[in-house]
Structures are given as structure tokens and as C-alpha cells.
Amino acid sequence: MKYRPLALLMALALAACSQEAAQNNSGQQPASPTTSSTGEPAASAASSTSAIAPKHGEFFGTDMRKDDIGGDFTLTSGDGKPFAISSLKGKIVLLTFGYTNCPDVCPASLLTYSEVIDQLGEQAKDVSVVFVSVDPERDTPEVIDKYVKTFNKNFIGLTATGDQSIPVVKQQYRVVSSKSQEQSADIYLIDHTAGTYVLDKEGNTVLMENYGRTSTEIAADVKKLLQS
């Protein structure tokens, strides 16, 4: 199996959440999807860079096709039933990891993906956005389903129940996460890698869109993959 240094492979931000957010978050209510930790609208925070042509290669995102990363997995969807990522074959999948109590990175990212879907128009029917929780203790199927659907009714939220294992899925996609600023068993933040994997119609991991990539850039990459 081929590995590149994590920083070079993914170019991901480790999403650290503020102490103030931890103090104000009860651990039971999802963070607001409308603002970032800076107090600015999250969509603006995630989409502030003007779209330009890719400087290198054919995509804005990092090409992952030569890396042995990803694979099929089964978790639980909002209806409480097992959901395999392979069931989305035939579609382009935007796959990201986070948690519903995230105060900034996750809502900003999901707003960006919502903008991507809007920009795709009729092509959006061939694209799925999947949000995998790294916090299954608090993110029940009902909680994560309600959360992702505040951004788009077709977004898919997945979490682990029973014998399902988030650590195994994280290892498949080389995602890291850890609790921080723990105040109690139910009040804490999670530092986690941020970014979006793009899976092609065959379920192969082809791109990594770094956190902060604009919706226009991501949409351009998705359109190219839809044409292939």
C-alpha cells in the first residue's frame, strides 16, 4: 500500500474548535449552520476565493488516483438502516467527515456543498453529498439526518451503530480525529481533519478538495468527472 506523508497527501486542516464554542455548546444541539467561528456567514467564509483555472493538471483538487485510499463501508443512515457507500455507484460522491456539534468547519463546508449542488443544476441528480460523523456517541441517526438536511434535503448523513466501526472507516480514508476541551462526558469538541473526498462513478477516490476550496471550483471538478 502506498503512503505519502499525511500533510502532502491530503493538505488538510486540523479543525480545532474554540473554547468559547465548547462553553456555549451543550453537546445536545447541533451548531448553527449559518455562521463560522469568525462571526461571518459560513458560506462567505468557505467561498471567498475567486475561481480561476487550475494551475496544475486538469482539476482544482488534489489528484488521488495513484494513492491506495478509500473503499466501501457500511454505516447507518438517518432512517436507522444500514447504508453502503457502494450503493451510490453510478454517481459522483462528495464524501466528508465531521460532527454535528462542530461550530465552524463542518457547517461552512456543508454550505459550500449546498452551493455546489445549486450550481450543478440538472446534473445534481447524479451527485451525492455524504457526511460521516466522527462523533457517533452524540450523533445518532436521527440527529445527523436532521442536521445534514438543514443544508440540503438530499444530503446523506451516516453514523455508526451496533458493531459498525468509525475507526475502521477513518483508517480507510486516513482521517484523524480526537476529543478536545472535554468538560464532561457530553460536552467536548473534536479536532478532525477537514476536506472532501470526491469519488467517481465507480466508487474510486479520485480527488481531495481541501477545506476552503470554493463551490465554483468544486463544481467545475465535479462537472469534469460527470463527463468522463
Compact overview of the structure:
With 228 residues, this protein is an alpha+beta fold.
Structural overview:
- The strands form two sheets. Strands 1, 2, 5, 6, 7, 8, 9 and 10 form an eight-stranded mixed β-sheet that branches. A two-stranded antiparallel ribbon has the order 3-4.
- It is built from seven helices and ten strands.
- The protein has one domain: Glutaredoxin (3-Layer(aba) Sandwich), CATH 3.40.30.
- It has helices at 6-10, 19-24, 42-46, 105-120, 141-148, 166-172, 215-227, and strands spanning 13-15, 62-63, 74-76, 82-84, 92-98, 127-133, 156-158, 177-180, 189-199, 205-210.
- The longest helix is centred in the middle third of the chain and has 16 residues, at 105-120.
- It has 228 residues and is α+β, with helices and mostly antiparallel strands.
Domain module count: 1
Q: Percent range for helical residues?
A: 25-40%
**What gross morphology would you assign?**
globular
* Alpha-carbon distance between the two ends: 26 Å
* SSE string: HEHHEEEEHEHEHEEEH
Oligomerization category of the chains in this entry: single chain
Mean pLDDT: 82
CATH fold title: Glutaredoxin
Question: Which CATH class is shown?
Answer: Alpha Beta
- Which structural class best describes the helix and strand composition? alpha+beta
CATH superfamily: Glutaredoxin
User: What would you say the CATH architecture is?
Assistant: 3-Layer(aba) Sandwich
The number of distinct β-strands equals: 10
Strand content: 15-25%
pLDDT < 50 runs, ≥5 residues? 1-13, 15-51
| Rg from alpha-carbon coordinates | 16 Å
Main pleated sheet: 8 strands, mixed
So how many helices?
7
